[in-house]
Amino acid sequence: MTELDPCALDIRWGDRTYALNLNHTWVRRVLSYAGVNGKPPATLLLGFETGSYTIEDVERILELGLIGAGTSEREADQLLNDHVRTKPIAENAGAAAAVLFALYAGKPNADASA
């Protein structure tokens, strides 16, 4: 899925790499109806930029990203238990922000030159 969808990203937790994608049809519907914890995605982007995000924002974005990439809800919850809820918040906030940003701008192009 990561190769086909321009909004999907891979993150590494432990010794495995996991795909996350907020561009999945079901996830986009959730985001349009409920946002993340009642906040629209653009507000969340601003929150990550200014450091005004919550623990719940980080967890929910990563959860939706995992589900959007095909991970079952049960497995996503277990991954959050193992790699997010037991770690310092900032350790996963960057990943959550990157997944959210990819929904708007696509994944970063590794071949792009500065």
SSE topology sketch:
Layout: E1 9-13, E2 16-20, H1 25-34, H2 41-50, H3 55-68, H4 73-83, H5 89-105
Supply the key terms.
single chain, 114 residues, two-stranded antiparallel ribbon, 2 strands, mainly alpha, disordered C terminus
What does this structure look like?
This protein is mainly α and 114 residues long. The protein is 54% helix and 9% strand. The protein has 5 helices and 2 strands. It has helices spanning 25-34, 41-50, 55-68, 73-83, 89-105, and strands spanning 9-13, 16-20. Strands 1-2 form a two-stranded antiparallel sheet. The longest helix has 17 residues, at 89-105. It is globular and about 30 Å long. The model is unreliable at 110-114 (pLDDT under 50).
- Taking pLDDT < 50 over at least 5 consecutive residues as the criterion, the unreliable ranges are 110-114
Largest sheet: 2 strands, antiparallel
Structural class, from secondary structure content? Answer: mainly alpha
What is the global morphology?
globular
Helix content: 40-55%
- The whole-number mean of residue pLDDT values reads 90
Classify the beta-strand content into a percent band: 5-15%
Give me the side-by-side strand order of the main sheet.
1-2
Oligomer designation = single chain
Strands, count:
2
Separation, N- and C-terminal Cα atoms: 27 Å
Question: Count of DSSP helices?
Answer: 5
Order of SSEs: EEHHHHH
CA-based gyration radius: 13 Å
